[in-house]
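Q: Hi! First time doing this. I have a protein sequence and I read that you can turn it into a structure. Is that right? Here it is:
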Amino acid sequence: MNLMKGKITMFKNLGLQLFTIRDYMKDPEFADLSFRRIRELGYTEAQAAGNAFDAKLFGELLTKHGIRIIGNHCGWDAILNKPEETMEQHRMWGTTNVGIGGIPHEARAGVTELRKFIDLFNKTAETYAKEGFKLTFHNHNYEFEPIDGKKTPMEIFAEEFDPNNISYVLDTCWVAAGGADVREWMERLAGRIDILHLKDLEATRVINARSPEFNVTEIGNGNLYWDGIMETAEKIGVKHYVVEQDNNFKGTPFESLRISAEFLKKYQK
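A: Yes, that's right. Below is the predicted 3D structure, encoded as structure tokens:
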């Protein structure tokens, strides 16, 4: 596929990680207005990051505006210790993707603790899989730092996470911020990335090779090579394309989301 010729058509539904508008969803009235606005900007899918008010109403408001929930980030404690309650909420929202946002703090202490977490995550994923759910894992940059003097947590995850029951929410910006190649990791995890976080990186200053300073920025305003990323995403079978911007907004999150949506239109069917 030649991305430089003609119209690029990749995906149909543009998604949003709702953490981006976290300050605008604290009550039903503001959430209602916010969901209407993001739908007007072209976002038709959403990945939740919990909810600040009644979960049923939260889901109903998204549905009201034609936005489908395709996943959620939960606390590890809830996934591990409240599986029935967690699964019931996801059933209510109509999604089977039950995710955590990163390595639990205790699992970062060393390779022994990391492998204990992997073993528990695999066993928990098996429990959820029996009910039709899949656990998802979202990366940051620290998963690309060697933990045993040789391998990084991401390398160990790729080898030891159960590929049948666990998928990835690969975050493009955090991969790059960890010093790794985004497309190489997408290819390494081919068939295992259900949700791709579209997030751009703007380098501001480099202190040293291990500690760059950077900002998250709107898609197309940073340093990531989006033609290549989107080509690879199509090739490896990404299911959901989800914009996330943590901070550094152009005035408001909605203006930043407008900029990202406009840039991404060239990749939509």
